[in-house]
Amino acid sequence: MAIHTQELHPGFAAEAGFLDLSRPLDGDAVAAVQAAIDAYPVLVFRDQRLTDGQLRDFAACFGPLEIGRSAARPGRRRLAIPQIGDISNLDVDNNVRALDDRRRLDGLGNRLWHTDASYMPVPVVLGMLHAVVLPPQSPFGNGETEFADMRAAYDALPPATQQAVDPLVAEHDVFWSRAQIGFTEFPAGEREQYPPSQQRLVRRHPVTGRKSLYLSAHASHITGWPVADGRLLLVDLNTHATQSRFVYSHTWRLGDLVIWDNRWTMHRGRPHDETKARDLRRATTLDTGSTLEQAA
To answer: Each residue of 191-241: pLDDT tens digit?
Structure first.
């Protein structure tokens, strides 16, 4: 089978024809969804009504699932299934978090352009975000999620620049990204639990062979370069890669399920009214090995 798609951004983002993702998918349907993601690294399914268990089961069709930093911490969680990330402004009792709440401040790092979990030795592949509760429109912004096409960004580099960046390796560190917004209050032992990891700066798609920049707010510097030079290069590449011509901005509707491939995209959240509830649930699939082990 094939999934009908309607482009939202040329060659990058598309809306998929309706599938009820709450129902188990057979092998043909899973293959069709994967083929659509290979063609469009940002894929939008409208009008889904998934329980956390159904979201977990759907995501698990595409690989083993990540348990994120927040879910790995001890203590009560709002959501019962650890493989479901709580991308909300709600505390464990479903109250809107205070503006100075430590977990809210940590989560604000998601407003930086980033690739999920690139600070892990084995990073992630697919991210899936499901809109359960959305706040009303406000002058603070409407909580859009923006996605940048890192394949198109690589293609637009001059050939000499492509050749120069192809062999480079960057060090990724979640504590570096959070420090950029002034957040340093991590639980005891978490810095030791998540040491920096090295990742290729350029990756090659295993199906299409197309090359892509692999950037993130977590990327601190270039391995083997003076730190200052590496950081300046990363600033330049991030500025290049997030030009409006490479970016799709997703305006959320209740029931949306957005799937993106972290290997070929960056994304960031945008502001919204923090006095009203916003509840999105995320599932993320893990890669099978380090980017350093994969063909450049």
So the answer is: 788 899 999 999 999 989 999 999 999 999 999 999 999 999 999 999 999
Tell me how far apart the alpha carbons of residues 183 and 153 are, in angstroms, rounded to a whole number: 29
pLDDT tens per residue, range 136-188: 988 888 999 999 999 999 999 999 999 999 999 999 999 999 999 988 888 77
Q: d(Cα 62, Cα 126) in Å, to the nearest integer?
A: 8
CA pseudo-torsion sign 245, 246, 252, 257: positive
CB-based contact 134:143 (threshold 8 Å) = yes
DSSP, residue by residue, 118-186: TTSSS-EEEEEEEEEE-PPP-TT----EEEEEHHHHHHTS-HHHHHHHTT-EEEE-HHHHHHTTT---P
Q: Residue 142 and residue 250: Cα distance in Å, rounded?
A: 10
Specify the residue for token string 């050939």: 159
Distance CA 42, CA 36 (A): 9
Residue 287 has pLDDT above 90, yes or no: yes
Superfamily of domain 5-293: Clavaminate synthase-like (3.60.130.10)
Nearest 5 degrees, angle CA 5-CA 123-CA 103?
95
Question: Which of these, 128, 123, 219, 217, lies nearest to 165 by C-alpha position?
Answer: 219
Helices (H), 20-100: 27-39, 52-59, 69-72
Alpha carbons 24 and 38: distance in angstroms, whole number: 21
Contacts of 106 (CB under 8 A, 6+ apart): 70, 178, 183, 186
Distance CA 119, CA 141 (A): 29
Q: Where are the domains of the chain?
A: 5-293
